[in-house]
Structure to design on (662 residues):
């Protein structure tokens, strides 16, 4: 008899819990709607014809779905006097982002390994200086960097842009790897030294295999930064080496006559697709990597 | 016999701070040297210096006659077992054990043969394809030992290898290490803060404090004739009783008088020691205070003492009393009749007594 009352009270509180849970879902759903609204407008607008955009409602679904705007954006839209779409600029961005991401991640891993595991005189000072690099507003370095690129003979080239992105990515990548590697017990390095392994052997055989979560975090972070960069792209490029962000700006700003909203929207989505893809593919590692603590040996 | 390890005048500084001061130690092949001391005494730093993982500030270090002072760890022909085991987390047990040989370019057939030998020796054959994360503490300990054994080095170094294990396993592994030492007849240097580990394993003990060697000796020397108050207090459990007393010369004997606040002083005589200063600290092991006739000794002298606390410990019963303003522990047999608050007749055996100067703490006899 006594246990009859127990399920009842538990039932009541369960009903309360379910209500609370639903309230939570509703609130989260509203937030998600709010955040997805611009994307919805962009996607629907890109699939409408100009005629329909002029006459229809911003929020309505397209009556006739057409991919004309996407085709124009990819290979026909005009940036200034050129009308080749964003395709060449998209490849420029790929050619800049991929090597720059890989290089800055690799060098950051080495830097972090040195600062965390091979303590030397002034290690803290050097690390502090690199951290300081994370907080410098990039506008400050535009002129000196332009001069440096000129002296190196790579001004306005894709290698020049890769160089700039690697340099200014190192602060963050070093920070990421350093914070990851300080959680690895220094006895591991000592054991490997007694085993006869040298600096690079220890890095390659012991530290890199441990680093997958932080490598993913760093790649996502760096790819997002470099792909979305506009300031360096517009400052240190010339015709033929401009990244997609600069092209997007030019397409949107340099149309004459009628504003082709559908083409603008399609271009913007194309420009954003790669970063979106990276987050979808590697997003769960990103969360895991950011919260990764010490390594159990 | 030439020493396998010979350390002369070793100093180690971190900036201005002296971590190790004038360390001189030599051990013969087959010796089991234990560095023991409280945390922060520099024993692990000394081990790292022997391994070459820490550069030394002054002095010299020879292993098997070769000057290793500035030689890198990999060329010292040593193997080391770490407190956290330091197994490579992403490698299997087999690859952990063979990593050193792989780095040194040993051919695959030899690697495999040595791996099998060591795995069989340590009974870890069934673990070879696992990763360290899938092993228990004791298993990791064995793998770490395997990684050292496979090297077949001149010198084994152990940095508190048992302190991460639970009490039962620690005693088992301690016996196993001792057995290993006897079987291989290898030279070993072992760091611990546990004085029982030091006593049971060592053929030679170095007691350290504040970066300075306090005493070097066999376990029996360290236990029976501690060089100063620190060693006397640190080695042994329960600790040696260190009681302030007055000494005076009467004829051929030394008269020792221990004050008590609840009655007449205890007076003992020692015919074997002469010329002590008036104020001394007398050091008596708990087992040298017993019931009359229980651990009979010719030098035993009887006195009546009031017992404060009785602590049965299975094989023995410890009783605690007040003497000379200090708590004094005596080791009585398990079925003793001593009861708290009652007067107990006790026999003091001064055959192994130590005397220390109260001001310097140095041994006097």
């Amino acid at each position: 008899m006594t246990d009859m009352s127990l399920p009842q009270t538990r039932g009541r509180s369960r009903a309360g819990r379910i209500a609370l849970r639903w309230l939570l879902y509703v609130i989260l759903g509203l937030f998600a709607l709010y955040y997805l609204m611009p994307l919805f407008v962009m996607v629907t607008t890109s699939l409408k014809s100009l005629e329909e955009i002029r006459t229809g409602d911003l929020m309505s679904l397209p009556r006739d779905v057409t991919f004309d705007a996407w085709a124009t954006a990819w290979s026909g839209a005009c940036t200034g006097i050129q009308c080749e779409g964003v395709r060449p600029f998209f490849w420029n961005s790929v050619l800049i982002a991929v090597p720059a991401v890989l290089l800055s991640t690799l060098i950051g891993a080495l830097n972090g390994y040195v600062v965390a595991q091979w303590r030397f005189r002034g290690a803290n000072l050097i690390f502090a200086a690199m951290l300081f690099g994370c907080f410098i507003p990039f506008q400050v370095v535009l002129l000196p960097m332009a001069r440096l690129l000129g002296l190196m003979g790579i001004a306005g080239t894709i290698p020049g842009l890769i160089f700039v992105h690697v340099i200014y990515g190192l602060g963050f990548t070093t920070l990421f790897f350093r914070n990851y590697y300080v959680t690895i017990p220094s006895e591991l390095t000592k054991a490997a030294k007694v085993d006869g392994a040298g600096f690079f052997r220890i890095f390659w055989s012991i530290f890199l295999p441990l680093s997958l979560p932080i490598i993913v975090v760093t790649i996502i972070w760096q790819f997002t930064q470099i792909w979305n960069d506009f300031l360096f792209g517009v400052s240190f490029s010339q015709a033929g080496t401009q990244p997609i962000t600069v092209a997007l700006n030019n397409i949107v700003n340099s149309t004459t006559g009628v504003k082709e909203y559908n083409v603008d929207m399609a271009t913007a989505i194309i420009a954003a697709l790669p970063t979106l893809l990276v987050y979808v593919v590697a997003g769960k590692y990103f969360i895991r990597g950011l919260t990764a603590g010490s390594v159990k040996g | 016999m030439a020493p396998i390890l010979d350390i002369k005048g070793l100093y180690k500084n971190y900036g201005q701070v002296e971590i190790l001061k004038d360390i001189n130690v030599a051990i013969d092949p087959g010796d089991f040297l234990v560095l023991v001391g409280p945390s922060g005494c520099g024993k692990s730093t000394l081990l790292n210096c022997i391994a070459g993982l820490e550069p030394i500030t002054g002095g010299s270090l020879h292993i098997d006659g070769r000057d290793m002072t500035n030689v890198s760890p990999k060329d010292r022909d040593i193997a080391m077992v770490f407190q956290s085991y330091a197994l490579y987390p992403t490698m299997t047990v087999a690859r952990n054990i063979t990593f050193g040989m792989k780095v040194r370019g040993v051919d695959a057939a030899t690697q495999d043969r040595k791996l099998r030998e060591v795995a069989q020796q340590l009974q870890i054959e069934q673990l070879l394809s696992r990763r360290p994360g899938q092993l228990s503490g004791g298993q990791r300990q064995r793998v770490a030992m395997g990684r050292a054994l496979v090297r077949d080095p001149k010198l084994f170094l152990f940095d508190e290898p048992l302190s991460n294990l639970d009490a039962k396993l620690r005693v088992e592994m301690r016996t196993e290490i001792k057995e290993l030492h006897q079987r291989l007849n290898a030279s070993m240097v072992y760091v611990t803060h546990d004085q029982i580990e030091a006593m049971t394993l060592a053929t030679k003990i170095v007691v350290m404090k504040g970066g300075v060697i306090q005493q070097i000796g066999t376990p029996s020397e360290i236990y029976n004739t501690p060089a100063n108050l620190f060693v006397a207090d640190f080695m042994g459990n329960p600790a040696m009783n260190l009681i302030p007393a007055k000494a005076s010369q009467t004829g051929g004997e030394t008269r020792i008088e221990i004050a008590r606040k609840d009655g007449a002083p205890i007076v003992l005589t020692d015919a074997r020691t002469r010329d002590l200063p008036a104020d001394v600290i007398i050091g008596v092991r708990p087992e040298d205070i017993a019931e009359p006739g229980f651990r009979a000794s010719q030098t035993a002298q009887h006195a009546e003492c009031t017992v404060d606390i009785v602590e049965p410990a299975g094989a023995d019963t410890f009783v605690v009393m007040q003497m000379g303003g200090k708590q004094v522990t005596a080791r009585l047999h398990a079925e003793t009749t001593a009861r708290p608050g009652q007067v107990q007749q006790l026999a003091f055996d001064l055959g192994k007594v130590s005397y220390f100067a109260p001001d310097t703490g140095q041994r006097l006899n």
User: Anything to note?
Assistant: The interface with chain B takes residues 185, 187-188, 190-197, 201, 205-206, 209-210, 295-297 of chain A (CB under 8 Å).
